[in-house]
Design a protein that fits this description.
Length: 83
């Protein structure tokens, strides 16, 4: 886990071959004025979990970065835990 993921308090990280999942407790500090999870926070979580999935299939010595990230939101998240 990197410093940013520690800052936003990512919980459990599970990796499979080409897949990953994380848990995050939705705290008040991550909510926007409408009391919904901030879209930028969601994008950060998506970027992190995508990286874990990608790293699970890389050969030793290789690294990866996201070149593009796009999200279409279909509902709000207002409290609780994200898996």
């Amino acid at each position: 886990m990197n410093a940013f993921e520690t800052l936003i308090k990512i919980g459990t990280v599970e990796q499979g071959k080409g897949s990953a999942s994380i848990t995050v407790k939705v705290n008040q500090q991550y909510l926007n004025d409408a009391q919904n999870l901030h879209g930028g926070f969601i994008a950060s979580i998506l970027d992190s979990v995508s990286g874990y999935a990608g790293m699970s299939i890389l050969p030793p010595g290789y690294q990866l970065i996201a070149l593009q990230l796009s999200i279409n939101f279909i509902r709000v998240i207002s409290k609780g835990q994200i898996p």
